[in-house]
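Final paragraph of the annual report: two paired records, presented back to back.
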Amino acid sequence: MIVLAFVPLLYPPFPPLVDLPGHMGRFKVAADGATSPYLSQWYSFRWMPIGNLGVDVLAIPLAKLIGVEAATKLVVMMIPAITVAGMLWVAREVHNRLPPTVAFALPLAFGHPFMFGFVNFALSMALALVAFGLWLRLGRLGKSKLRAILFVPISFIVFFAHTFGWGTLGLLCLSAEAVRQHDRGLSWWKAVLRAGYHAAAMALPLALMVLWRSEAAGGKTVGWFAWNFKLEYFARALRDRWEWLDIGSLAVVVLLPLFALVHRRLVLSRNLAFSGLTLLACFILLPRVIFGSAYADMRLVPYMLAIFVLAIRFKAETVYPLARTLAFAGVAFLLVRTAGTTASFAIAANHQRQQLAVLDDVPMGSRVVSLVWSPCKGWANRRSDHLPSLIIVRREGFGNDQWPLAGSSLLTTTYPEAGWYKGDPSGVVRSEGCRREGVPIELSLRGIPRDAFDYLWLVDLPPIPKAWVAGWAPVRIAKGSLLLKRVDAPLPADAAPRLKIRRTETAIGR
């Protein structure tokens, strides 16, 4: 099952995750920016001891040896496999065996946060699950002192991968330890206090987080109890490409623990059920945006559901006909989801390969402004949103796709001539009347400061009037991709009004 988690990402040249090309642009600047005569004009990178470094610290050194795309693929491929390993270990420690239903939880390793490209977060959650398995094992063996010693460095490793994983690990360990202490005869209040004492071994990174946030500028915390968004995020826990498959799969994952609650032979482990309820409470209480980091509550959903599925166990003896049925059904479910994810990634990779073909006509060090169309409706993940960052990776050029991360941006963009088109979300455009994020296509095209850019790259745009791209001449056309070069002839007087746009929540970093 762990090996199977590698399969969906074997074919694509780099993982086709929504945000990942933006991360790859940052990796390129970090790896080669200091020696590139082009990138050093617009970008700078500096390491900072922050809780958002997971893939960076692995991919950037590796990129110096094998290149950004290969390094990113190698590191990101490991994340689902580590996540699956963590789930299996947790289930094994709680049930003293792998329960027949365990395979139903494993496709959640490819949940919406991973598909969105929150790779530092996803890596931290994978490490948190593995660490949680170790916590349970050492607790079962009665090695509390050894556990306390080991989890001081472990907590820092998970924290530096991403703060969210560290916080989740603390909650999982606290809730599980409370149940263990209660089972040893303590009242619930004393059990929780004793569990807090044991979990305090992981509290040292809190000092780093306080120092980090005290030095951070900006970064709002907004979106408390936004129920409409929470329902949407819950429904999109397995969002990929085909809505019928993703919603149907979610229904299976949600109904299975409910089935266990009503079936006379099945029950939920109190240990993991309490941990799942703790994560559910956090999902309800978390806002949409924390310190400028978006989708804070959404990220928790697949892992919360996985914990509930992993909690399923038989009340007494294993009833073999039922166990056999559940085991076969779980493996079939895992294989169907893996096949669907593999096919979806292959489709996305082929489409991206066609779109990126136009970059062959872009000279090294060119300044490229890109506009990616955001359709008003649709279930499939928009995997082209940050594709323009491949301009940085492949052509060492300037692209308007890098986003700020309030208080913790490792990469700095210094190109004031670009104005609004300095970075994300200037590249997201929409049709007139669409309520989704992005600026109307015509306004965005007219607002481009032409002297600041050499090329215009249009991605997934619907047909538009030629007048909207006056001053730009087509260079190459590919499926879902159009490259234009700046024409130095003067524009009509009414063709170049400057666009004034106030940054909104869409500009929030990941």
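The closing record of the year follows.
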Amino acid sequence: MFAEHAAGAIAVERELHESFFAELGVSEADVAATPMAPTNLAYCSYLLASAQGGSFAEALGAVLPCYWIYREVGVELARRGSPHPLYARWIDTYGGEEYGAVVQAVLDLADRLGPALSNADRRAAAARFAVTARYEWMFFEMGLRREEWPV
């Protein structure tokens, strides 16, 4: 399931981002030359470390906020709407039914797995969830602040 989600995300997000870049006049060279922002690098590194060094439940706890928060933000923004075509495309991607079904599949997996976990495993998964939920907030915030490396 996660391999399918990753492949789908790569295809959908690549198309979405490339359309944004084209409209904004950003070249592939510009994108390639732009370093990952500090928060993004830290978040991605934490996700990879959680998946590699933690249990399956911890990895699930770590990736769940990315799915779920994007969905909730997308649904709320769809409710509000946007007259700007760039924002409207992002909103349609994450607020739509297709992405909602993907998120629901991950939530269903978490609901099935949760009752079988020991208390210690449940706490470990919840701790990963809490950290990545914070990283999700920081990820959106870094865009607003146009975060760059200070040195």
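The chain has a mean pLDDT of 94. This concludes the annual technical report; the extension proposal builds directly on these records.
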